[in-house]
Amino acid sequence: MTREIAPCPSDEQYSVEALRALGLDAIEIAKVQEIWSKIRDEVLRRIHRDASQSFLLLAEPLMILRFLRAREHDVDKAIGMWYGALAWRGVHVARALTECGIFENVGEDENIWNWRPHTSPSDAPTIRGELGARHGHSRRLQNIKADDDAPILVWRMGKFDLSGVARENIQDALAMQQVASLEDALQMCRELSCRHNRLIRARVLCDLSGISVTTSLKHLSLIKSLMGLAKSFYPEVTASVTIVNAPFGFETLWKLISLLLNDHMRSKVLILGSNFDNTTFMKHANISNISQLPTCLGGEQSDSILAPALTVPRGTGKKLEKDQSPPFLDPNVDYSSSSQ
């Protein structure tokens, strides 16, 4: 159960007046209207045959705007990404949320996103979900937001055990955890966007403390595959990505990673070293109260509010082999090249 509750779209939502009220300029209004005109029939067909109606959030004007901006205002590419995400979500999202977390207060206000990751990895209903929770690096900070009311995500890439994940062949479990985290961010952004009547995107804080550039270069394909899920299926979820504690030599790794991103995505990124200036950090992340952040980012909160990102012990792969459920992702599909 994904609780992606959304009202049936109407042509009135796509009027010039309605779109202008959401903050779109004249060019974006015209392009969002064009996209709606080209997907409208598909949306209406699905309303009559999809009992869950979970796809309707993709037909909301601000969601269409996310697809447009994610593909640098190219209408055809935005539509291609929309159809790709539509098909992919129906197979993967509900499973990721179910295995990696839990919905609280079910039956209350359905317009409030109330999913959270499992408190303990052992709470996960499957081995795959448990491994994702135990060794994953990404999590949204609960009840902590940026100055623009944007959700804050923390990626602990410095603690992420790339070598262990590759050695034990548990990439699939980590991909599922990544999807659950991305979905959590998208849904919270959607809720806040509806509340404020404007597009809200998350602020990502990426901590590289402890990262090995050599190891990362060795496992670049794994990094690429995880990044590809966001690039292909989660449009314009982030407003900024502030990288801190970047070690000497990170520039080499970044040059390769940045090739996977378009100019719009690259423009969101700021890279800071270990002795980063708090003023620069806070300005880019739009966070004025740094004390609300975990200690690894210069704040006063316990790092326990973050994803564990624990080292992967030898033998973990054998544990995943006992999971009776099918793989989360099709190993024969390169998701990093989907919906370009």
Describe the protein's architecture and organization.
With 340 residues, the chain is α/β, with parallel strands linked by helices. 46% of the residues lie in helices and 10% in strands. It has helices spanning 16-21, 26-49, 61-70, 75-100, 127-135, 162-168, 171-196, 213-218, 220-233, 250-258, 263-266, 278-285, 316-321, and strands spanning 101-103, 115-117, 138-145, 151-155, 202-207, 238-244, 269-271. Helix 2 crosses helix 3 (61-70) and helix 4 (75-100) crosses helix 7 (171-196). Mean pLDDT is 92; it is low at 1-5.
Proportion in helices: 40-55%
Number of strands: 7
Rg on CA atoms, Å: 20 Å
How many alpha or pi helices? 13
Main β-sheet, spatial strand arrangement: 3-4-5-6-7
Quaternary structure annotation? single chain
Strand content: 5-15%
Runs with pLDDT <50, length 5+? 1-5
Question: What is the string of helix and strand elements?
Answer: HHHHEEHEEHHEHHEHHEHH
> Structural class of the helices, strands and pairings?
alpha/beta
Q: What about the largest sheet? A: 5 strands, mixed
* pLDDT averaged over residues: 92
- Based on Cα principal axes, name the global outline: globular
Give the N-terminus to C-terminus distance in angstroms: 29 Å
